[in-house]
TrEMBL record:
Annotated signal peptide: none
PANTHER family: SENSOR KINASE-RELATED (PTHR46580)
A Pfam family of this chain: FG-GAP_3
Protein name: VCBS repeat-containing protein
Top-level taxon in the UniProt lineage: Eukaryota
Keyword Signal: yes
Taxonomic path: Eukaryota, Metazoa, Spiralia, Gnathifera, Rotifera
Swiss-Prot/TrEMBL keywords: Signal
Length: 249
Protein backbone atom coordinates (compact mmCIF):
# COMPACT_ATOMS: atom_id res chain seq x y z
CA UNK A 1 0.00 0.00 0.00
CA UNK A 2 1.40 3.39 -1.08
CA UNK A 3 -0.29 6.35 0.61
CA UNK A 4 -0.77 9.41 -1.58
CA UNK A 5 0.52 12.89 -0.78
CA UNK A 6 -2.21 14.51 -2.87
CA UNK A 7 0.22 16.00 -5.39
CA UNK A 8 0.67 12.95 -7.59
CA UNK A 9 3.46 11.45 -5.48
CA UNK A 10 3.28 8.60 -2.98
CA UNK A 11 4.96 7.43 0.20
CA UNK A 12 7.04 4.27 0.26
CA UNK A 13 5.13 1.01 0.28
CA UNK A 14 3.81 -0.77 3.34
CA UNK A 15 3.53 -4.53 2.83
CA UNK A 16 0.83 -6.89 4.09
CA UNK A 17 0.75 -10.68 3.83
CA UNK A 18 -1.82 -12.36 1.57
CA UNK A 19 -2.36 -15.89 0.35
CA UNK A 20 -0.12 -17.61 -2.21
CA UNK A 21 0.32 -16.05 -5.66
CA UNK A 22 -2.06 -13.06 -5.33
CA UNK A 23 -3.36 -12.11 -8.80
CA UNK A 24 -6.11 -9.52 -8.34
CA UNK A 25 -7.23 -6.85 -5.87
CA UNK A 26 -10.34 -4.77 -5.22
CA UNK A 27 -11.43 -2.35 -2.50
CA UNK A 28 -14.66 -1.59 -0.67
CA UNK A 29 -16.10 -0.98 2.79
CA UNK A 30 -16.90 -4.52 3.94
CA UNK A 31 -17.88 -3.77 7.55
CA UNK A 32 -19.76 -0.49 7.09
CA UNK A 33 -17.42 1.59 9.21
CA UNK A 34 -16.77 4.13 6.38
CA UNK A 35 -13.19 2.83 6.13
CA UNK A 36 -11.99 1.12 2.97
CA UNK A 37 -10.96 -2.52 3.10
CA UNK A 38 -9.08 -4.77 0.66
CA UNK A 39 -9.86 -8.12 -0.97
CA UNK A 40 -7.21 -10.13 -2.82
CA UNK A 41 -7.62 -13.20 -5.04
CA UNK A 42 -4.95 -15.80 -4.28
CA UNK A 43 -4.35 -17.95 -7.35
CA UNK A 44 -2.04 -20.43 -5.65
CA UNK A 45 -4.13 -21.50 -2.65
CA UNK A 46 -7.74 -21.12 -3.83
CA UNK A 47 -8.72 -18.35 -1.44
CA UNK A 48 -9.52 -14.68 -1.20
CA UNK A 49 -7.94 -12.60 1.55
CA UNK A 50 -9.90 -9.81 3.24
CA UNK A 51 -7.88 -7.12 5.03
CA UNK A 52 -10.04 -4.72 7.04
CA UNK A 53 -8.89 -1.11 7.11
CA UNK A 54 -8.37 0.97 10.24
CA UNK A 55 -9.00 4.23 8.39
CA UNK A 56 -5.47 5.52 8.96
CA UNK A 57 -3.87 3.79 5.98
CA UNK A 58 -3.09 0.58 7.83
CA UNK A 59 -4.88 -2.77 7.69
CA UNK A 60 -5.61 -5.75 9.91
CA UNK A 61 -4.17 -9.17 9.18
CA UNK A 62 -5.94 -11.11 6.46
CA UNK A 63 -8.95 -13.37 6.89
CA UNK A 64 -9.22 -15.97 4.14
CA UNK A 65 -12.25 -17.54 2.44
CA UNK A 66 -12.33 -20.50 0.09
CA UNK A 67 -12.99 -20.00 -3.62
CA UNK A 68 -12.93 -22.34 -6.59
CA UNK A 69 -9.71 -23.53 -8.20
CA UNK A 70 -7.10 -20.89 -9.12
CA UNK A 71 -8.95 -17.60 -8.50
CA UNK A 72 -7.84 -15.05 -11.06
CA UNK A 73 -9.97 -11.87 -10.98
CA UNK A 74 -12.00 -10.30 -8.17
CA UNK A 75 -14.65 -7.58 -7.99
CA UNK A 76 -16.99 -6.22 -5.30
CA UNK A 77 -20.62 -5.05 -5.47
CA UNK A 78 -23.92 -5.47 -3.64
CA UNK A 79 -25.54 -8.44 -5.38
CA UNK A 80 -28.48 -8.98 -3.00
CA UNK A 81 -29.54 -5.39 -2.37
CA UNK A 82 -28.90 -5.45 1.38
CA UNK A 83 -26.48 -2.46 1.29
CA UNK A 84 -23.62 -4.83 2.19
CA UNK A 85 -20.79 -5.43 -0.24
CA UNK A 86 -20.31 -8.90 -1.71
CA UNK A 87 -17.41 -10.51 -3.60
CA UNK A 88 -17.26 -12.23 -6.98
CA UNK A 89 -14.12 -14.04 -8.13
CA UNK A 90 -13.32 -15.97 -11.31
CA UNK A 91 -11.72 -19.41 -11.00
CA UNK A 92 -9.67 -20.43 -14.03
CA UNK A 93 -8.85 -23.88 -12.64
CA UNK A 94 -12.45 -25.15 -12.69
CA UNK A 95 -14.17 -22.67 -15.04
CA UNK A 96 -16.48 -21.13 -12.45
CA UNK A 97 -17.14 -17.96 -10.54
CA UNK A 98 -17.58 -17.84 -6.78
CA UNK A 99 -19.98 -15.36 -5.18
CA UNK A 100 -19.46 -14.65 -1.47
CA UNK A 101 -22.25 -12.62 0.10
CA UNK A 102 -21.18 -10.13 2.76
CA UNK A 103 -22.63 -9.99 6.26
CA UNK A 104 -21.82 -6.29 6.60
CA UNK A 105 -19.45 -6.86 9.52
CA UNK A 106 -16.37 -7.72 7.45
CA UNK A 107 -17.14 -11.43 7.19
CA UNK A 108 -18.60 -13.38 4.27
CA UNK A 109 -20.81 -16.40 3.68
CA UNK A 110 -19.50 -19.54 2.02
CA UNK A 111 -19.18 -19.31 -1.73
CA UNK A 112 -21.92 -20.07 -4.24
CA UNK A 113 -20.60 -21.38 -7.56
CA UNK A 114 -21.72 -20.68 -11.13
CA UNK A 115 -20.39 -22.16 -14.36
CA UNK A 116 -18.58 -19.99 -16.91
CA UNK A 117 -16.68 -20.53 -20.13
CA UNK A 118 -13.17 -21.96 -20.23
CA UNK A 119 -10.45 -20.03 -18.37
CA UNK A 120 -12.51 -17.11 -17.01
CA UNK A 121 -9.72 -14.58 -16.57
CA UNK A 122 -11.56 -11.33 -15.89
CA UNK A 123 -14.83 -10.12 -14.35
CA UNK A 124 -16.81 -6.88 -14.42
CA UNK A 125 -20.13 -5.87 -12.88
CA UNK A 126 -23.04 -3.73 -14.08
CA UNK A 127 -26.81 -3.59 -14.51
CA UNK A 128 -27.23 -4.84 -18.08
CA UNK A 129 -31.03 -5.11 -18.17
CA UNK A 130 -31.98 -2.00 -16.20
CA UNK A 131 -33.80 -3.87 -13.44
CA UNK A 132 -31.67 -2.30 -10.64
CA UNK A 133 -30.11 -5.73 -9.99
CA UNK A 134 -26.40 -6.11 -10.63
CA UNK A 135 -25.23 -8.53 -13.32
CA UNK A 136 -21.84 -10.08 -14.09
CA UNK A 137 -19.77 -10.38 -17.27
CA UNK A 138 -16.78 -12.72 -17.61
CA UNK A 139 -14.05 -12.87 -20.26
CA UNK A 140 -13.34 -16.54 -21.03
CA UNK A 141 -9.94 -16.78 -22.71
CA UNK A 142 -10.11 -20.31 -24.09
CA UNK A 143 -13.69 -19.97 -25.37
CA UNK A 144 -13.22 -16.71 -27.28
CA UNK A 145 -16.32 -15.23 -25.72
CA UNK A 146 -17.76 -13.25 -22.86
CA UNK A 147 -20.31 -14.77 -20.51
CA UNK A 148 -23.14 -12.65 -19.10
CA UNK A 149 -24.93 -13.79 -15.93
CA UNK A 150 -28.00 -11.72 -15.08
CA UNK A 151 -28.65 -11.14 -11.40
CA UNK A 152 -31.95 -11.75 -9.64
CA UNK A 153 -31.22 -9.17 -6.94
CA UNK A 154 -31.11 -11.75 -4.15
CA UNK A 155 -27.48 -12.78 -4.61
CA UNK A 156 -28.22 -15.49 -7.17
CA UNK A 157 -27.74 -15.43 -10.93
CA UNK A 158 -29.21 -16.91 -14.10
CA UNK A 159 -27.24 -19.28 -16.29
CA UNK A 160 -24.69 -17.64 -18.54
CA UNK A 161 -25.34 -16.30 -22.03
CA UNK A 162 -22.32 -16.31 -24.35
CA UNK A 163 -21.23 -13.69 -26.89
CA UNK A 164 -18.36 -14.07 -29.34
CA UNK A 165 -15.24 -11.92 -29.01
CA UNK A 166 -11.85 -11.99 -30.66
CA UNK A 167 -9.27 -14.68 -29.96
CA UNK A 168 -8.06 -15.02 -26.39
CA UNK A 169 -10.11 -12.42 -24.47
CA UNK A 170 -8.07 -11.37 -21.45
CA UNK A 171 -9.83 -8.47 -19.76
CA UNK A 172 -13.34 -7.03 -19.67
CA UNK A 173 -14.79 -3.67 -18.61
CA UNK A 174 -18.16 -1.96 -18.96
CA UNK A 175 -19.41 1.52 -19.80
CA UNK A 176 -22.03 3.36 -21.85
CA UNK A 177 -20.14 4.02 -25.07
CA UNK A 178 -23.03 5.31 -27.20
CA UNK A 179 -24.82 7.49 -24.64
CA UNK A 180 -28.09 5.54 -24.72
CA UNK A 181 -28.11 4.88 -20.95
CA UNK A 182 -27.47 1.19 -21.60
CA UNK A 183 -24.27 -0.49 -20.48
CA UNK A 184 -21.91 -1.86 -23.12
CA UNK A 185 -18.93 -4.23 -22.92
CA UNK A 186 -15.31 -3.77 -23.99
CA UNK A 187 -12.87 -6.69 -24.15
CA UNK A 188 -9.17 -7.01 -25.00
CA UNK A 189 -8.22 -10.03 -27.14
CA UNK A 190 -4.63 -11.15 -26.62
CA UNK A 191 -4.20 -13.58 -29.51
CA UNK A 192 -5.38 -11.47 -32.45
CA UNK A 193 -4.50 -7.99 -31.17
CA UNK A 194 -7.95 -6.46 -31.23
CA UNK A 195 -10.40 -4.80 -28.88
CA UNK A 196 -14.06 -5.82 -29.03
CA UNK A 197 -17.01 -3.53 -28.26
CA UNK A 198 -20.42 -5.14 -27.68
CA UNK A 199 -23.22 -2.60 -27.45
CA UNK A 200 -25.99 -3.37 -24.98
CA UNK A 201 -29.69 -3.32 -25.81
CA UNK A 202 -30.64 -2.55 -22.20
CA UNK A 203 -32.54 -5.83 -21.78
CA UNK A 204 -29.57 -8.03 -20.87
CA UNK A 205 -28.65 -8.82 -24.48
CA UNK A 206 -25.83 -7.45 -26.60
CA UNK A 207 -25.11 -6.80 -30.27
CA UNK A 208 -22.37 -8.61 -32.16
CA UNK A 209 -18.90 -7.28 -31.52
CA UNK A 210 -17.28 -4.37 -33.31
CA UNK A 211 -13.49 -4.64 -33.39
CA UNK A 212 -10.61 -2.19 -33.25
CA UNK A 213 -6.92 -2.94 -33.81
CA UNK A 214 -4.50 -2.74 -30.89
CA UNK A 215 -0.76 -3.21 -30.57
CA UNK A 216 0.74 -6.57 -29.63
CA UNK A 217 -0.94 -8.71 -26.95
CA UNK A 218 -3.48 -6.35 -25.34
CA UNK A 219 -3.77 -7.47 -21.73
CA UNK A 220 -5.96 -4.97 -19.88
CA UNK A 221 -8.51 -2.22 -20.51
CA UNK A 222 -9.94 0.70 -18.55
CA UNK A 223 -12.65 3.26 -19.30
CA UNK A 224 -12.90 6.99 -18.61
CA UNK A 225 -13.56 10.40 -20.17
CA UNK A 226 -10.03 11.51 -21.08
CA UNK A 227 -10.90 14.65 -23.06
CA UNK A 228 -13.80 16.03 -21.01
CA UNK A 229 -16.39 15.77 -23.78
CA UNK A 230 -18.80 13.66 -21.65
CA UNK A 231 -18.12 10.66 -23.92
CA UNK A 232 -16.37 7.58 -22.62
CA UNK A 233 -12.93 6.72 -23.94
CA UNK A 234 -10.89 3.53 -23.64
CA UNK A 235 -7.25 2.82 -22.78
CA UNK A 236 -5.62 -0.55 -23.53
CA UNK A 237 -2.20 -1.75 -22.39
CA UNK A 238 -0.24 -3.92 -24.81
CA UNK A 239 2.00 -6.41 -23.04
CA UNK A 240 4.49 -7.29 -25.78
CA UNK A 241 4.87 -3.71 -27.04
CA UNK A 242 5.25 -2.09 -23.62
CA UNK A 243 2.70 0.50 -24.74
CA UNK A 244 -0.74 1.90 -24.02
CA UNK A 245 -3.33 2.69 -26.71
CA UNK A 246 -5.98 5.38 -26.16
CA UNK A 247 -9.25 5.32 -28.12
CA UNK A 248 -11.33 8.49 -27.92
CA UNK A 249 -15.06 7.88 -28.01
Amino acid sequence: VLLGHGNGSFANQTTYSTGYQPRSVAVGDFNNDTRLDIVVGNYGDNTVSVLLGYGNGSFANQTTYLTGSSPRSVAVSDFNNDTRLDIVVTNVGDNTISVLLGHGNGSFANRTTYSTGYWPGSVAVGDFNNDTHLDIVIASYDDNNVNVLLGYGNGSFANQTKYSTGSGPTFVAVGDFNNDNRLDIVVTNWDDNIMSILLGYGNGFFANQMTYSTDSSPSSVAVGDFNNDTRLDVVVVNCNDASASVYLG
